[in-house]
Amino acid sequence: xxxxxxxxxxxxxxxxxxxxxxxxxxxxxxxxxxxxxxxxxxxxxxxxxxxxxxxxxxxxxxxxxxxxxxxxxxxxxxxxxxxxxxxxxxxxxxxxxxxxxxxxxxxxxxxxxxxxxxxxxxxxxxxxxxxxxxxxxxxxxxxxxxxxxxxxxxxxxxxxxxxxxxxxxxxxxxxxxxxxxxxxxxxxxxxxxxxxxxxxxxxxxxxxxxxxxxxxxxxxxxxxxxxxxxxxxxxxxxxxxxxxxxxxxxxxxxxxxxxxxxxxxxxxxxxxxxxxxxxxxxxxxxxxxxxxxxxxxxxxxxxxxxxxxxxxxxxxxxxxxxxxxxxxxxxxxxxxxxxxxxxxxxxxxxxxxxxxxxxxxxxxxxxxxxxxxxxxxxxxxxxxxxxxxxxxxxxxxxxxxxxxxxxxxxxxxxxxxxxxxxxxxxxxxxxxxxxxxxxxxxxxxxxxxxxxxxxxxxxxxxxxxxxxxxxxxxxxxxxxxxxxxxxxxxxxxxxxxxxxxxxxxxxxxxxxxxxxxxxxxxxxxxxxxxxxxxxxxxxxxxxxxxxxxxxxxxxxxxxxxxxxxxxxxxxxxxxxxxxxxxxxxxxxxxxxxxxxxxxxxxxxxxxxxxxxxxxxxxxxxxxxxxxxxxxxxxxxxxxxxxxxxxxxxxxxxxxxxxxxxxxxxxxxxxxxxxxxxxxxxxxxxxxxxxxxxxxxxxxxxxxxxxxxxxxxxxxxx
Length: 717
Ligand code: ADP
Ligand code: MG
Description:
- A 7-stranded mixed β-sheet has the order 16-28-27-26-17-24-25, sandwiched between helices.
- By secondary structure, it is α+β, with helices and mostly antiparallel strands.
- The chain has 25 helices and 28 strands.
- The protein folds into 5 domains: 7-93, Alpha-Beta Plaits, CATH 3.30.70; 112-212 and 318-387 and 662-714, no CATH class; 239-303, Calcium-transporting ATPase, cytoplasmic transduction domain A; 401-425 and 539-646, HAD superfamily/HAD-like (Rossmann fold); 430-536, Calcium-transporting ATPase, cytoplasmic domain N.
- 49% of the residues lie in helices and 20% in strands.
- Helix 22 (617-622) links the parallel strand 26 (606-611) and strand 27.
- The radius of gyration is 32 Å and the shape is elongated.
- Adenosine-5'-diphosphate binds next to helix 15, helix 17, strand 20, strand 21 and strand 22.
């Protein structure tokens, strides 16, 4: 979604950034992805470019002054130069996950053979050369057939001013071996490397496909009810307000309202909730859920692009555009690592022969082994894939994480701050007492319901519900909501002020002190105090357990903030085992409290705020990690938050933190394993105990193993 706003730059009016999304099909080298991203970022007129290695999506934010087509041409040029086999395509929103699945699933022997014919030919010659003790010529032919692609790429890259990539390293290493007369070894190493690359390519594609599978909850067509009967059409062709039929066993294609039939719906793909949800007339039905029993008709309320499923997929796709610190670190690390190893190799090759009189050919061989080990590919590939798998796995649990950086930060959460109403409590209040003064109970409720009828606040909704009859909204003449306090409105001829103690204080209204437990809502009609009502909220069934489990997964401090009365707040806090509570806060005071809490964090600790999006959007934005709950329907919460819990359940935060821990553990394992094996082989090579074979394994083999490990982040922790 691009935002348009007008800004003035040097007297010229222009629109700010628009976005461009391209797809780089066939890209399987993460190193190259990083290079392409860096180069595109250097282009003129580009605000930010992000290449998502897992979805192959290149998202570019453009300044409005540039012409899109020109930028696309320039990007194509860059890609052509760095990776000639990669295809640059335009892209339609949300198509990503789908195409991931299709493209990467199919494996055909025909393609495989035609792509690798030179390699296979070279292998054949190589076998003949070994078995017949052939001359140098045959060996060299086999070498060039097998390694031609690597040699060619290395040469091309050097011409483009890019040395130190793995093609270059393999070229030097194998040419060195040939120079030493080790023909068979040179060929074998090149062969091993190439075969490893092919495996790696398939491993990356398999992983992408399994992530795609997991998120494949989209349906492309629906059964539209028309004058001529029911027709099955593409979802893009179903207009808002039309009726579709969803048969038992089918996935719901678009969001809507159930208008006929009843059924049990499986919403697990959206919320991670495995219990079936019973839906009947008037219930909201979300795209992506499965109709498990009856035939239902649904009046469509979303388009293909705005349905719940489309929004989830878009968020997951965009998530890895926000790179985690670890990812950035590895990219930077590799930039230093490779040249450093090359320098090390030169020292290994030269120092002992020059200063210690050692045999040059022995040390040259050791240096070459050292060089091959240096390819940092394992780290570069497995980390973005790991984060993407983690984000995919989280979405399976009903936790939408809006960036790899947030998935990483969740692991460091030290303080969790909860909003009370609607987050820890159900937010569905029940009116338990009504004390009208000079007004009947039913008249009190009627006026209160009219006054609250325009508000989305959970309190307002329950007051409206307590008044059984329908509300004639034409009677609402004026309406002002005072956040965290209440409402000022005019209904017909009556000026109504309804809200809490602090609102009454603001208007200097004398109120009685109320002992009852619960939230007290006072009402003033035409400047006369008309009494109060007490409404009760219940804590959610899982709140207490969620708080206990948060402590178990490493959260140190749990805080509750609320605009409600101190008495109620303290009771709830005591029931739930909350460490610290602040009550009677206005929305901006919640921000201030969060700022104070942020100051109390330890240097590495992070603060997460969990709210329902009512009166707390500024706090969501201020916290290190803003978590919106039950955001499945609400755009505002989804916009403001960094993490969205689809289920209306604080337990979702525990899932989110556990997923983060699982993902970061996997990535640490990968980094430790890769660096461990590499440094071991490097040390061994200096002592002459490592062969070229071990070196190639420590590059390609380790890469494949770490990719496979990364994919574990998809599964439940
Ligand atoms: P919380 O922090 O618990 O989520 P809010 O900040 O949303 O609560 O609201 C704080 C208090 O303001 C409520 O407990 C209630 O007393 C009062 N209030 C807020 N909105 C309304 C409303 N629409 N009608 C009456 N009272 C309201
Ligand atoms: Mg609230």
